[in-house]
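step=encode ok
step=design start
structure_in=
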């Protein structure tokens, strides 16, 4: 681990105020407090993670200097133990959440087999571009450790462990060579999906109006996110990160970002040709094999889901009625 490495989190103070926190090893230090104590004392230092993301190019090196200070003998007791704070969603709240569909080779292969369909060719060979849909932000995003009520309108809610990119620099019509320069860091999301709400009943199969993306993808708590943002330049090999998901301790998803079809850079570059990406926007980059749909198993009240992504931490959720 780098001497100046850190994680960027949003947490709740005892009195309920929402703060931006710098996680260094097992301690959380208020970002604004660090700025006044160890930096220039700027009155304009951002109080939120969103504010930090809006000034990412200036904030990141300063936060690295602050992380070094925390690890020094003089700063060893700064902040509070991580176990004593309540983590909130790291971005409160993303301006836009983009989600990639069918973007892991093992997941596409698994679903083709489950549906008795022939293997699909690599979209690159067909000249296709990345494919995304948009998910609601504030209604859907939940913190690690949250209890999430399963939607009453659905009986087949599925899990989808994903790596998400957090934008830290305005991004418009960029190429793949420079796309990741606009990414502040990575976090974990669970792109929950109500599989039984994807097709509208009594609408003909050939109708272009048959599909209900809101019903399937947007419900309260449909996007657990966290536990924090890991800066991109702290990640050794983002294209080879291990991904695992357990339901009640049973391993369901076990893959790696090496199985991505469209890379992180390709996704950012393509989306930036359609609209301007802004600091705080989030891109969920797709899920690997192991979802419940392929085995006919879905979430039930009382289920506990744990997602681990290499170098990014763990995201925990509990589901209830």
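sequence_out=
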């Amino acid at each position: 681990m780098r001497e100046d490495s850190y994680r960027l989190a949003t947490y709740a103070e005892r009195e309920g105020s929402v703060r931006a926190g710098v996680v260094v090893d097992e301690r959380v230090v208020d970002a604004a407090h660090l700025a006044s104590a160890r930096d220039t004392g700027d009155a304009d230092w951002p109080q939120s993670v969103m504010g930090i993301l809006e000034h990412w190019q200036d904030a990141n090196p300063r936060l690295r200097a602050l992380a070094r200070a925390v690890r020094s003998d003089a700063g060893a007791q700064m902040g509070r133990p991580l176990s004593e704070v309540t983590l909130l969603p790291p971005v409160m709240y993303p301006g836009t959440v983009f989600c990639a569909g069918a973007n892991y080779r093992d997941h596409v292969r698994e679903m083709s087999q489950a549906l008795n369909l022939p293997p699909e060719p690599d979209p690159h060979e067909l000249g296709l571009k990345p494919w995304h849909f948009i998910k609601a932000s504030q209604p859907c995003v939940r913190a690690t450790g949250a209890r999430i009520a399963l939607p009453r309108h659905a009986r087949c809610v599925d899990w989808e462990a994903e790596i998400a990119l957090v934008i830290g620099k305005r991004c418009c019509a960029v190429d793949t060579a420079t796309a990741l320069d606009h990414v502040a860091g990575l976090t974990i999301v669970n792109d929950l999906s109500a599989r039984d709400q994807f097709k509208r009943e009594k609408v003909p199969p050939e109708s272009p109006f048959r599909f209900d993306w809101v019903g399937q993808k947007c419900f309260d708590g449909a996007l657990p996110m966290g536990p924090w943002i890991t800066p991109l330049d702290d990640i050794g090999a983002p294209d080879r990160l291990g991904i695992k998901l357990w339901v009640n301790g049973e391993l369901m998803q076990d893959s790696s970002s090496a199985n991505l079809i469209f890379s992180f850079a390709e996704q950012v570059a393509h989306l930036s040709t359609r609209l301007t990406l802004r600091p705080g926007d989030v891109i969920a980059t797709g899920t690997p094999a192991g979802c419940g749909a392929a085995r006919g198993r879905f979430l039930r009240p009382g289920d506990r889901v744990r997602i681990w992504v290499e170098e990014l931490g763990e995201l925990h959720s509990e589901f209830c009625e």
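step=design ok
step=annotate ok -> The chain has a mean pLDDT of 93.
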